[in-house]
Write a sequence for this structure.
């Protein structure tokens, strides 16, 4: 491959195809009778084959080729039920191979995959192909067996066979044994069932129920010619015994099958219509194609180019701010009017740039179907995943960032929320659990709810933990509200010590997750009710690239506060300050709001030029209930700032959202209001608790 | 067939080394002799026609014509031909295919002397005393 751009294009195209593949596998799994996904898969792999070959990854291309052949076979012959799980598992595993490869390429490692590995895959496919298209034997039904038994001279036997432990090609061995026996009689049934025998070749011993005209000695001779049989026992059965044994066996398998079925996962088919739409759209395009009449409604853009564009635009905004300020000093009306006119196109561009960065949450959330499927299989839970609001759009960066918290929440919900099917039935619930992932937009934020209808948070257990860890004595612990207890769950280190059945179990758990959300300037909320379920709500900002901000001065330094967080700005009046239990509060209207002196908070007290400025009080709000008042030194102008991620030495960099350049070219830090409010309120809660 | 007459074996394998090993083992068995060696499927078929052996050991992956095709064609010449596949590990699919085409049995490389002797024992029924 020649250039970096080619590689990037290769990666992005491959990723799309892989994602598509995964969806197709899932849809095949959901509805195996429908052969359409297999056909789609076949074409997807065909495309992947060409793509990887063009990119010069010969082995990878071969790898895809083998897939293609495998699917071509499957397209013609239906995959039998007993082989299906295996078949699907194989497709999934090989997808992982492709993903790993791409990840490697992304890191700059352009070496092809190992050729030997591809050979192995090919071999395993070959064996798989033969596995699913041949059936050595089939169980006969009652009628057929009776008919055979009624034929003169026919005798029935149970043959126990044990293979040598060293036997490697068990399938072939089985085939040879069955073939030899069927040449001289008829196999009516086996134990384990024929389809399990062919699949699970792990077993070295099995029983064959066999009808033949031959005597026991002859059967023995037939088997003696076959290698790798360690032991055999041939027992004559009378026809009554013979039939009963087979009937009993079949009954046993039926019950086993229905039990294992219940551990299978059912996925909601919520998006079937969408899929159909998509396919129709594709066929429309294909249709148009013949008429040379394609309308291309979207183009692929390299995400890095987009980022660059944002940055350049950001610089333009800064320059424009600067010009604005210079113009205020001069008195050139025409220029001022012209610059004011520029505001409109600037805003328009900003809006479009902003939209460009948006993606539907669907692109990521659809992957959770696979996750849910895997985790449900792991845990033996039975549930469906309902995705709502998948067409909500969100900043791609933020979507990437919330992926791992969401995965964590989903795993948690399945592991610790949803009960086992048996338990659910006992509780009178639908044995099929529901996991709902709901996304919606409200003001500047995206809300994502992960809601299960499981057992709910065990608050008593958390109280016990609170007591045993000596945060409270048992009396006081009883007074703690659910909300208070959530604070403990989210306390780093608390959940790691909690019992697995409380909530997290996986150590890192919710504390880190909540931390991550807060880093994003988001928020996190828990609601839970015993036996009804738990709802986690993640709130993240829609975007964070360009913000309207209020410039303020603290000591000699410039800071900015996003205007969306500001409710009101007042001149600071010391008489409005009151002390409650040693904490400062600021009275605004009939409310008393916690006070944060930004100079203290940001460790700038010693630099402060005391009270030479008339200070300001900024009322900032997280939501209706949660506000604080920031005290700063001076209010300056408002402007659009381009947020750059920031690491700082200022007290706690968690309090800083990022940095930006002011019109004059100075650097200002953007205060992360939401994070400060959250921390302050937590502090207050914890100090109140103590 | 009189008791003195030895059973005839044709060895098919593209590796001289493997052929030699097989030949050494088989020739040590009193009642059997190796009457021919082929290094590919085409040779195997023509030698089979010429020599009419009692048993063929068949490698699967060979140049010119592979073991599966050779097995198929030999069985067309003589439907009762006894063909034992000698295959490498990891070729289960191929071995199964050969078995489906009519190969009598199979052993895996690397094989042990006893295994070869056992195959001959069982399939050519050299030792008359079968323990039932």
């Amino acid at each position: 491959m020649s250039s970096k751009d080619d590689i990037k294009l290769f990666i992005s195209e491959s990723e799309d195809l892989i994602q598509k593949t995964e969806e197709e596998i899932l849809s095949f799994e959901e509805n195996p009778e429908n052969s359409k996904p297999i056909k789609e898969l076949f074409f997807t792999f065909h495309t992947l084959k060409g793509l990887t070959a063009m990119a010069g990854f010969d082995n990878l291309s071969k790898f895809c080729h083998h897939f293609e052949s495998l699917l071509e076979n499957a397209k013609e012959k239906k995959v039998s039920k007993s082989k299906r799980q295996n078949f699907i598992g194989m497709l999934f595993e090989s997808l992982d191979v492709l993903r790993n490869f791409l990840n490697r390429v992304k890191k700059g490692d352009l070496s092809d995959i190992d050729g030997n590995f591809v050979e192995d895959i090919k071999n395993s496919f070959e064996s798989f192909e033969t596995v699913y298209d041949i059936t050595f034997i089939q169980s006969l039904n009652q009628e057929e067996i009776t008919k055979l038994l009624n034929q003169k001279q026919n005798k029935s036997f149970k043959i126990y066979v044990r293979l040598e432990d060293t036997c490697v090609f068990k399938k072939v061995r089985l085939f040879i044994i069955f073939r030899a026996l069927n040449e001289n009689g008829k196999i009516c049934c086996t134990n384990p069932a024929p389809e399990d025998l062919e699949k699970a070749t792990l077993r070295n011993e099995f029983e064959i129920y066999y009808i033949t005209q031959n005597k026991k000695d002859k059967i023995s001779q037939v088997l003696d010619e076959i290698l790798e049989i360690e032991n055999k026992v041939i027992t004559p059965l009378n026809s009554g015994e013979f039939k009963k044994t087979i009937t009993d066996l079949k009954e046993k398998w039926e019950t086993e099958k229905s039990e294992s079925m219940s551990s299978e996962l059912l996925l909601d088919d919520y998006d079937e219509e969408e899929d159909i739409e998509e396919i129709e759209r594709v066929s429309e395009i294909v249709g148009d194609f013949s008429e040379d009449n394609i309308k291309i409604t979207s183009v692929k853009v390299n995400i890095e180019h987009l980022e660059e564009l944002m940055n350049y635009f950001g610089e333009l905004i800064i320059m424009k701010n600067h010009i604005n300020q210079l113009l205020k000093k001069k008195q050139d009306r025409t220029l001022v009017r012209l610059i004011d006119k520029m505001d409109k196109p600037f805003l328009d561009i900003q809006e479009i740039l902003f939209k460009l960065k948006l993606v539907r949450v669907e692109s990521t959330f659809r992957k959770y179907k696979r996750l849910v499927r895997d985790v449900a299989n792991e845990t033996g839970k039975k549930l469906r995943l309902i995705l709502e609001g998948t067409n909500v759009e969100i900043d791609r960066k933020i979507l990437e960032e919330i992926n791992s918290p969401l995965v964590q929440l989903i795993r948690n919900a399945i592991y610790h929320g949803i009960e086992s099917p048996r338990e659910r039935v006992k509780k009178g619930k639908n044995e099929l659990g529901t996991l709902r992932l709901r996304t919606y937009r409200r003001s500047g934020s995206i809300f994502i709810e992960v809601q299960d209808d499981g057992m709910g948070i065990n608050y008593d257990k958390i109280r016990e933990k609170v007591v045993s860890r000596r945060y409270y004595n048992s009396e006081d612990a009883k007074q703690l509200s659910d909300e208070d207890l959530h604070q403990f769950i989210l306390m780093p280190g608390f959940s790691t010590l909690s019992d697995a059945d409380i909530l997290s179990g996986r150590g890192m758990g919710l504390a880190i997750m909540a931390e991550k959300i807060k880093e994003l300037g988001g928020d996190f909320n828990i609601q839970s009710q015993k036996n009804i379920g738990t709802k986690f709500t993640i709130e993240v900002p829609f975007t964070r690239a360009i913000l309207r901000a209020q410039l303020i001065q603290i000591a000699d330094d410039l800071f900015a506060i996003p205007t969306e967080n500001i409710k009101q700005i007042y001149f600071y009046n010391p008489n409005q300050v009151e002390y409650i239990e040693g904490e400062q509060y600021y009275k605004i209207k009939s409310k008393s709001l916690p006070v944060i002196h930004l100079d203290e908070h940001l460790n700038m007290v010693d630099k402060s030029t005391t009270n030479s400025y008339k200070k300001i009080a900024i009322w900032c709000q997280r939501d209706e209930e949660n506000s604080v008042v920031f005290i700063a030194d001076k209010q300056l102008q408002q402007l659009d700032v381009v947020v750059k991620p920031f690491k700082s030495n200022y007290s706690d960099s968690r309090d800083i959202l990022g940095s930006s350049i002011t019109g004059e070219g100075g650097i200002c830090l953007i205060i992360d209001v939401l994070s400060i409010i959250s921390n302050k309120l937590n502090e207050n809660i914890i100090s109140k608790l103590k | 067939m009189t008791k003195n007459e030895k059973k005839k074996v044709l060895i098919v394998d593209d590796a001289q080394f493997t052929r030699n090993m097989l030949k050494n083992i088989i020739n040590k068995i009193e009642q059997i002799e190796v009457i021919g060696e082929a290094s590919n499927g085409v040779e195997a078929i023509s030698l089979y026609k010429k020599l009419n052996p009692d048993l063929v050991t068949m490698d699967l992956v060979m140049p010119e014509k592979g073991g599966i095709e050779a097995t198929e064609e030999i069985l067309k010449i003589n439907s009762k031909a006894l063909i034992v596949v000698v295959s490498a590990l990891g070729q289960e699919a191929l071995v199964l295919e050969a078995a489906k085409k009519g190969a009598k049995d199979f052993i895996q490389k690397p094989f042990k002397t006893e295994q070869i002797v056992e195959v001959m024992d069982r399939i050519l029924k050299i030792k008359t005393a079968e323990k039932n």
